[in-house]
Structure to design on (545 residues):
């Protein structure tokens, strides 16, 4: 039983991450937001590669907030990789992006996103979203991920 | 007929026979031999008169072989008439000519005679051939042109898609730093109120407002770009449903302004793109409840059927109106008549006009300052299904 859901924010924008951390804190979220700054980092985090092997410092997330536009490996590719891992079946992935394009929304759901959120353009909107998310996370029942890093496909193979 | 009449008739006939510019042959149906031939045919085929007489048709190159000859004669006996639209013939000196050949059997007293009319269609055939060649060349040219047009259209479509992607990615990238400017300027005010005096707070709020304005400009630009570039397929659209949907989309503005909005039946069906039309109506209704001063906004929506299968949708308001000299300009991108008095980016009507244009219609306004405005959109009526 998860007491405090762990949220992994995957976003390449420093400023957006800072803002998200602030509004989440204000919304009463206890657990600090974990962060990966692009697609490769996100996959490394989930696999526990390198420093991410320290699960005390980098716990496995229950929910991933995933940006779409990132260099090297974008959100769609991360989504594709995640949904190929049976062990990550329980991971909630909410796309969180500035794009409201219908084709992006369709593609995200097609690739298995659990939800699609558009980044609000102002602080108030962001605060509202954080509050909503926190309430939602408290409301939802989650099943914990139980995986060892080697159980997951390597990031490099995912490129082919 | 008297003998005199007969002679006269014979003379007339003979004159026709001699002077005709088509070939005439007379053939004995029993012997199948030629019994008379007119000067034209003599000249045309190059044989002497005597060379015709007593010969069967195939011997002068008409109806090439015996079998064909016999078959033709059988048909002639049976139907009394035979026609060949295009028969090849060879003149005495070996030239190939083409003729139209018609043959009839007549009763002449107690005997029957076959009359054959031979018309030279060589020239006509040549002309037809040339015409056909010209037509083929024309077809080829048309096909080439068509292919070029297709290519250009594809290129254009690609470049339009690229354009939309370009506009989108620019707008997307520009909005990121705006989030930063907006967010942190507000955090400054909220979390560091103690460190800021009134002026400091004002400065921070200016940054906030400017960032939000720019963000709205960008989203509107994106919306305009989308309406301009997206693939639009026209279909029959039930106006009533779209109007209802548009009104629902303006619910917030209508409630906030306490506007009284009436949509009046009947609503015919139009040929349009439902999503675009909804956007157009949302923008018009939004404007109608916004640009009002010192009174409760009252809006009337209705459709008018015009001759020529056009439907005019009217959005009437009791607002501030538009002076005549600006009535065209307001439909342009980023044109705002009242930048200080009323919020907006000046793109709403540009989207209306572009959207309506892409659906093959027109938009306009009738208005006088202070006397309200009557915005209209014209679309073709949907063909009855």
């Amino acid at each position: 039983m998860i007491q405090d859901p762990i949220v992994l924010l995957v976003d390449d924008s420093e400023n957006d991450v800072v803002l998200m951390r602030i509004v989440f804190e204000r919304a009463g979220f206890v657990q600090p937001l974990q962060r990966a700054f692009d697609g490769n980092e996100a996959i490394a985090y989930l696999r526990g590669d390198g420093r991410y092997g320290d699960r005390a410092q980098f716990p496995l997330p229950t929910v991933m907030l995933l940006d779409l536009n990132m260099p090297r490996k974008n959100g769609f590719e991360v989504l594709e990789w995640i949904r190929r891992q049976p062990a990550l079946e329980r991971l909630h992935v909410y796309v969180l992006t500035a794009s409201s394009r219908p084709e992006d929304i369709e593609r995200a759901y097609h690739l298995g996103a659990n939800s699609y959120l558009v980044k609000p353009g102002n602080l108030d909107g962001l605060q509202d979203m954080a509050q909503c998310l926190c309430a939602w996370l408290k409301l939802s029942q989650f099943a914990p991920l139980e995986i060892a890093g080697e159980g997951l496909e390597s990031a490099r193979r995912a490129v082919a | 007929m008297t003998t005199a009449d007969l002679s006269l008739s014979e003379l007339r006939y003979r004159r026709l026979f001699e002077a005709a510019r088509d070939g005439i042959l007379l053939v004995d149906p029993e012997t199948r031999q030629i019994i008379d031939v007119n000067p034209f045919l003599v000249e045309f085929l190059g044989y002497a008169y005597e060379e015709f007489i007593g010969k069967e048709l195939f011997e002068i190159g008409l109806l090439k072989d015996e079998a064909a000859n016999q078959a033709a004669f059988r048909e002639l006996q049976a139907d009394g008439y035979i026609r060949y639209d295009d028969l090849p013939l060879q003149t005495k000196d070996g030239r190939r000519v083409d003729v139209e050949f018609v043959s009839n059997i007549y009763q002449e007293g107690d005997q029957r005679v076959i009359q054959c009319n031979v018309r030279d269609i060589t020239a006509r055939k040549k002309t037809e051939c040339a015409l056909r060649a010209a037509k083929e060349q024309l077809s080829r040219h048309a096909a080439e042109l068509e292919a070029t047009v297709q290519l250009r259209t594809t290129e254009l479509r690609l470049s339009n898609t690229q354009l939309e992607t370009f506009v989108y990615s620019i707008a997307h990238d520009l909005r990121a730093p705006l989030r930063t400017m907006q967010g942190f300027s507000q955090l400054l005010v909220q979390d560091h109120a103690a460190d800021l005096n009134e002026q400091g707070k004002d400065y921070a709020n200016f940054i906030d407002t400017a960032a939000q304005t720019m963000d709205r400009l960008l989203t509107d630009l994106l919306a305009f770009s989308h309406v301009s570039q997206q693939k639009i397929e026209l279909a029959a659209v039930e106006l009533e449903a779209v109007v209802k949907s548009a009104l629902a989309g303006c619910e917030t503005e209508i409630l906030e302004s306490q506007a009284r909005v009436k949509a009046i039946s009947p609503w015919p069906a139009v040929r349009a793109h439902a999503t675009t039309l909804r956007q157009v109506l949302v923008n018009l209704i939004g404007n109608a409840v916004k640009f009002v001063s010192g009174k409760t906004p009252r809006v009337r929506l209705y459709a008018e059927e015009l001759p020529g299968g056009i439907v005019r949708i009217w959005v009437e308001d009791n607002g501030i109106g538009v002076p005549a000299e600006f009535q065209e300009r307001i439909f342009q991108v980023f044109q705002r008549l009242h930048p200080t008095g009323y919020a907006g980016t000046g793109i709403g009507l540009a989207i209306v006009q572009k959207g309506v244009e892409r659906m093959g219609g027109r938009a306009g306004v009738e208005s006088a300052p202070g006397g309200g405005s009557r915005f209209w959109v014209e679309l073709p009526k949907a063909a009855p299904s």
Observations:
- The domain at 7-149 of chain A is CATH 3.40.50.2300 (Rossmann fold).
- The mean pLDDT of chain A is 88.
- The longest helix of chain A spans residues 123-139.
